[in-house]
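User: Design a sequence. Structure:
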């Protein structure tokens, strides 16, 4: 069978997730969980305080790269710290950082983000991205967005270059590193959602598909697998399908992403099955271990009621 995405089933699952979110049903009873919100509001406030309009946009753009390979909730809990921001705000300011060595920049990033494992790669690329931002775009990521016609799809494509493009290939093309399909899409989604940039097409750019979004669709039978399959292939297919559904039904991509991600992160992760709006549609709980270890989605049920 390989990988099969059931369009009708996916539509049904997304619709139920959106209805639950809109009506604050089940695990949405306290609203939508947005772990990034406190940090974004903090950098917006700081940028206004120091009268640097580009600060918040730059900070969000650079920080979003850390979302890949980290627990989003824990990441933003670590860095939504005003005292730390005051001390290390220079790591988000290309002009200030130009006066420091790569080693100093990486040390500052390490102190602020306290990364572990995979995310250390983001730290190692931070000096390159900062200096590119200054030299090519005047220290303002909004100039990069302007260059691509303020169009979400064009911006995402420019950041991704091509699926699974290597770091050296991106540097050859003179673009930023550490921005794959999920992160690039998340960048434009958050920039638009929190009013940090006005795009020409506010419902573009695609859906940031990660483990949580995909697991919900696998567990509800919208994505059918009979054996472990490559995660990149699955998330690519899921992204295309969700984009198609968004166009057909007029549903905002951001809302599709948030509803499914919340169910995965706040429901499945915490085994709140009895409180899940998709409880009747779901027949399993899959493990994240094959995803993190081998880049695979394994459809095997690990037991929902453990």
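Assistant: Done.
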């Amino acid at each position: 069978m390989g990988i099969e995405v059931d369009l009708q089933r996916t539509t049904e699952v997304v619709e139920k997730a959106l209805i639950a979110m809109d009506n604050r049903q089940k695990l949405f009873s306290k609203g939508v969980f947005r772990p990034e919100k406190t940090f974004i509001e903090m950098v917006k406030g700081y940028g206004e305080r120091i009268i640097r309009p580009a600060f918040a946009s730059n900070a969000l753009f650079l920080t979003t790269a850390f979302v890949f390979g980290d627990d989003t909730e824990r990441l933003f809990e670590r860095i939504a710290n005003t005292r730390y921001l005051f001390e290390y705000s220079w790591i988000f300011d290309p002009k200030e950082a130009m006066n420091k060595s790569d080693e100093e920049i990486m040390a500052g990033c390490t102190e602020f983000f306290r990364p572990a494992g995979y995310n250390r790669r983001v730290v190692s690329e931070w000096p390159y991205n900062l200096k590119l931002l200054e030299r090519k775009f005047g220290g303002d990521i909004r100039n990069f967005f302007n260059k691509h016609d303020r169009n979400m799809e064009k911006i995402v494509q420019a950041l991704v270059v091509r699926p699974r493009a290597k770091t050296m290939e991106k540097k050859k093309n003179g673009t930023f590193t550490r921005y794959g399909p999920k992160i690039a899409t998340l960048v434009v989604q958050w920039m638009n959602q929190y009013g940090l940039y006005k795009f020409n097409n506010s419902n573009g750019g695609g859906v940031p598909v990660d483990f949580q979004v995909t697991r919900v669709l696998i567990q509800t039978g919208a994505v059918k697998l009979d054996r472990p399959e490559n995660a990149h292939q699955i998330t690519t297919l899921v992204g295309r399908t969700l984009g198609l559904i968004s166009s057909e039904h007029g549903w905002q991509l951001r809302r599709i992403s948030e509803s499914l991600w919340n169910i995965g992160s706040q429901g499945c992760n915490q085994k709140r099955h009895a409180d899940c709006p998709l409880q009747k549609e779901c027949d399993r709980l899959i493990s994240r271990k094959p995803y993190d270890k081998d880049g695979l989605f394994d459809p095997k049920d690990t037991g929902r009621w453990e």
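The beta strands are 3-5, 223-225, 229-230, 296-297. The first strand starts at residue 3 and ends at 5.
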